[in-house]
Amino acid sequence: MVVRFVQWTMDVQDVELMARFWSEALGYSVDTGADGNAKLYPPQDAAPDVPTVWLQATAGPKREKNRDHPDLRPSDGDVDAEVERLVALGARHVDVGQSDDDALVVLADPEGNEFCVLKREPRSV
User: Fold this and answer.
1) Distance of CA 17 to the CA centre of its chain
2) What's the CA gap between 41 and 75, in Å, rounded?
């Protein structure tokens, strides 16, 4: 037996800001709970194994580079347009030592959490 990813959980300071950013970035709907947290759900037509996102309110700011992060792919394959769209939503470019030849673009969300937009499918050679 094995496990699979079903949810990505993230500690955030500004739940509303981060729910807005990540829901627009991923095309997810938002359910803000009375507890101050938010759950993001994939579109109705998403495959059943597409993970949800849980945004957990926390008091402390992010301090260092993430030890893990999501790698994303634009659904239409247009990396440049997707990076531009994500930056317009509030992401910013981040230098973590990557080169121009790397098959990814490193960004950070509005609270500084790094993520990558991959230029090709991770299983391709």
Assistant:
1) 13
2) 17
- At 78 the three-state DSSP class reads coil
Work out the average pLDDT over 73-102: 93
Predicted pLDDT at 125: 52
CATH class for the domain made up of 69-125: alpha beta
Q: What is the pLDDT of residue 60?
A: 82
CATH homologous superfamily, domain 1-59: 2,3-Dihydroxybiphenyl 1,2-Dioxygenase, domain 1 (3.10.180.10)
Coil, strand, or helix at residue 81? helix
Global confidence as pTM: 0.90
Q: What is the largest CA-CA distance in the chain?
A: 46
Tokens of 86: 């994500």
In order, the DSSP letters of 8-32 are: EEEEES-HHHHHHHHHHHHT-EEEE
